[in-house]
Design a protein that fits this description.
2 copies of one chain form a homodimer.
Chain A (H helix, E strand, L loop, with lengths): L4 H8 L3 H8 L7 H14 L5 H7 L5 E6 L4 H18 L2 E6 L7 H11 L4 E4 L7 H9 L3 E7 L10 E4 L1 H14 L5 E4 L6 H16 L9 E2 L5 H11 L8 E4 L2 H13 L9 E3 L16 E3 L2 H18 L6 E4 L2 E3 L9
Parallel strand pairs in A: 1-2, 1-3, 3-4, 4-5, 5-11, 6-7, 6-8, 8-9
Antiparallel strand pairs in A: 10-12
Helix pairs in contact in A: 1-2, 1-3, 5-12, 8-9, 10-11
Chain A binds a DNA duplex through helix 2 and helix 4.
DNA sequence: TTTGATAATGACAGCGCTGTCAATTTCATT
DNA sequence: AATGAAATTGACAGCGCTGTCATTATCAAA
């Protein structure tokens, strides 16, 4: 049932080392030999044993996905993207959700690494935005790839996939301005997250570029949750200067804002425009459907995983950086200012 | 940095075999010895190497999660539940999404098993509902645990976690009937899924029990998606006999129904009551919030994983079965019939 | 104290593969 | 045909652990 490398070697009439070479796509195996081996491999349905490879060799055959994010859509997209890259490259994926605030994160990750050899880690915010943390991981002698917010990589520590939240935020805000809005509210995610910082920066820049003064009363701290959107919108709509539009920092907040508007009898988009961010499936399922910015999480994650695997393979110090700018998607939740 | 069993043995002044015994919680190690070993383990921060364990031993230290489900909330909940059980039992989790319709599923799973030793698989629908498939997996010599719909386990093939969709469906339907509804629409998920079959059965039984005749025009096939809910509701609302309530087979379908109602200018719950199923976070974020049945996916999955691990440990033929009945949660999308 | 049964420990082989290095083959040139 | 460098292949050790079986320590009862 379970063929070993020995069985293949015998059947192909070569040494196990040669089979090993073929399985690892090493050069310096004659084509003829390679064919013989592959034939035996197919005949026997042979799969190299991962445990043995890990134990005997120096290469790693797995990567891990580290995250702390309650957003199911985000996590699934990321995971699927990473899995796609893994599948293509024959890597295994270890899933590792953990609490960023916990004292034990590093310990946990260390344990994981000691237990299973891992080529590297895919880090998403907030982990990717903690330089000391990243450095400590690298000191553990594993590669890292970071997915993070910004228009340029902050350092040379690792390959990065940068999401240009600033630019995307400018287009969303500009879209609202183009619709005639002058009082635009902003409901942020966790203030410590770079994505919030960057989106806020884009918001402010768009306003400034259009000669609209920034009113701090229209800027609300939140967290990336529905409830936060409900509260934020309620608060904004009871300001002296009621905004005519709200830029919510993600789709969940936007959905919460929508909910609050309904609660207060405010019609969308007639009396109030609401924009989200992320283009989660969610944003197509609210009423009205959300104007948002498309953040292609799956692609981003697949990219990240590919960069990580490539780096771990080549052992180059060269840290590539990929860039994404979420694109505006106009739907029904934003309209002309009256 | 990376301590091996040898280092621990040396430091503790015992043989590696004794360390191994301690690490595996075997009996017949004196308490004194055990303490010495544990002290060394802590001192050195030792973690047994998974690859070596897998290679040397006969026990497995991982399970796999097999699924084919586009519902992000469902998958994440399941995964978190399984991870919780794994963490507690020191198991690793392999994530394996795949296409149920694909010819290659079995092959893929076979490859995975040959590659990584796996104690067993957690199967969710539709896989868990394919008896021949399950049998073939078991023939591959891996344990299986099935999460499935029904009020009693269909066979003795494996431990099961049964979700009593029938009973839950009766309570939802009864709730609608109690509100005075006589024309109740039903929008199903994929007709082949037992959950749809069971929920439909519950729906029909509740109607029958209350002396309401079953009108097949009010029963719509769908799939578990938002779009399907939109279409289904549109169709139902253009029947000769307009239903005054719709039981949607899951929250996504319900959200779609809500959306369709908005599109058609039908107010919820005044003109139409809509109920969902699953209690995904989603159901709290629609307007109005959905009446639904709480299906505790995370618990269910944790249970399933625990059963699987227990079975693989004890090597008993004894297949336990756990039962869950989703409970009605009344929110704002259902109201009195007028 | 000796005995015998039982509990506790250890020696050793080997899981299936890769890394190292040595042996052999190949092939373009002489 | 002989030569040598390069390409191709193989022998062998050993990764870190567990299973098997042999050995030693322990302790109640004689």
């Amino acid at each position: 049932m379970k063929a070993t490398i020995n069985d293949v070697a015998k059947l192909a009439g070569v040494s196990i080392k040669t089979v090993s070479r073929v399985m690892n796509n090493e050069t310096s195996v004659r084509q003829l030999t390679r064919d013989k081996v592959m034939e035996a491999v197919n005949e026997l349905n042979y799969q190299p044993n991962l445990a043995a490879r890990n134990l005997a060799g120096t290469k790693a055959y797995s990567i891990a996905f580290i995250y702390d994010n309650p957003n199911a859509y985000y996590v699934i997209d990321m995971q699927n993207g990473i899995l796609a890259a893994c599948k293509q490259q024959g890597f295994e994926l270890l899933i590792h959700p953990c609490q960023a605030k916990s004292e034990h994160v590093l310990e946990e990750i260390g344990d994981m690494i000691r237990k299973s050899r891992v080529a590297g880690l895919v880090l998403t915010p907030p982990f990717s935005e903690m330089p000391e943390f990243v450095q400590k991981i690298i000191d553990l002698d594993v590669d890292v790839v970071r997915i993070m917010s910004g228009d340029v990589a902050p350092d040379e520590l690792s390959p990065c996939v940068m999401v240009n939240d600033h630019a995307a935020s400018v287009s969303i805000t500009q879209h609202l301005i183009d619709l005639g809005h002058k009082h635009i509210g902003f409901i942020g995610g966790e203030a410590a997250h770079m994505s919030t910082v960057e989106r806020l920066r884009g918001y402010k820049q768009a306003l400034t570029d259009n000669g609209i003064s920034i009113d701090e009363r229209l800027i609300i701290d939140g967290e990336y949750s529905f409830e936060s959107g409900v509260h934020g919108a309620k608060q904004l709509m009871s300001e002296d200067v009621r905004p005519t539009a709200i830029f919510s920092c993600n789709d969940e907040i936007a959905a919460g804002s929508l909910f609050a508007a309904r609660l207060m009898g405010i019609s969308i988009p007639e009396q109030l425009s609401i924009a989200g961010f992320e283009n989660s499936p969610f944003s197509r399922q609210t009423w009205p459907r959300l104007t948002t910015a498309n953040q292609p999480n799956q692609k981003i994650a697949e990219d990240a995983a590919s960069l990580l695997i490539a780096k771990s393979r080549k052992q180059t110090a060269n840290n590539s950086v990929n860039y994404y700018t979420p694109q505006l998607i106009v739907r029904d939740s934003t309209g002309k200012s009256h």
